[in-house]
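# nightly structure sweep
# worker-07 picked up a monomer target from the shared queue
# config: single-sequence mode, recycle default, output format = structure tokens
# input follows
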Amino acid sequence: MTVPASRVRRRSRTPGRLLPLLLATALLVPVAFLVIQAHQLVDADRDVLARERLGVEYLRALGPVTDALVDAQSAAVTGRSLRRDTLDQAVERAAAVDARIGGELSTSERWAGLRAKLEALPERPLADPEAAFTVYGEATDLLLALHGKVRETSGLIRDSSADAYFLQDGVGEEMPEAVVAVARLTDLAVLINRRPADERVQSLSQLAALRAAALQPANDLANNLRAVVENTESADLGANVLTPFDAYQRAVEALALYSQPTGRAGTFDTTRLLASRNEAQQAAKLLQPVLLDEIDRLLVERLDELDRDRLLILGAGALAALLLVGLMVSSWLSPRRDTPARMSEDVTPMSPADLRRDPVGVRPGEQPPALQPVGQLQEPDRWRPFDAAR
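# output follows
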């Protein structure tokens, strides 16, 4: 007899294909998170460096204001006539810079106060040199405070690079303080020579304080520049700095010598003192743009490195995303073998003995009839009586 084949159930391909897709999608989430986090960190570092470059630009604009202001102070104290064109032009250039980036550096309020003070300075020398010394001293105090504000809000004072930190400390703090203190020292020496003998002796303590205030930042600036020149990897920095740096050191040493009172009367050689002050100021004028350029160069190099890091991060993220997408597509399109399902438990397979069993059946206790060869049909029972009669 013919036995019908059992029906095989087919499993759906969808669950097997969805698992790789879900795994690839789950991997895309942390990869995207890491890429976004790294990109944000790079952008934050770039913002810090870009802000420091704004500080360098602002300090560059304040340098001419400082030089013009101390020159105007010396002219007012000595009674010399000095045109305000240089100071006014420097103020206008600094005002343009503040109008553009002062809001971001939070310096607009301080600059407005300083500019009002500068514009209120008399165009003609005052009749009282002592009063002129006081008035200009207030203006220079505001100018130094603005230098500190720029370094603070721009982040230059917190720069992580040793070279950039020492350079900004020298050009943003020590140099303007030294220029202002040297100008005050020489102007006070001129005033002391004009004072009566009894007041001259009392003024020597004030002069000693100004001498210390002038020499301390000048020496700190020299030490910082020496350390940077000796340790820097830039070949151009040493060549550009050495000449004005040496001139500045010689001028400071001469200034320290000529600012000492001579004789019992406690007078000063104002001619040599003023010459030393002019040499120091000219050397500072040459040093300032060189140092600011070096700071800006260091910041630009670090910005370029961050741009390369950002490209690497984006490239790595894009490559990881492409690999995962390729895995998803290949998993979905790859052929799969169908797995036979389990046969139903209510279907009992037939053995060869069942296939050859006599259809009549066997009673209990009877000997089963001999099996005929497979494929041979048994004779029906209804023909047996006729065969017996014959």
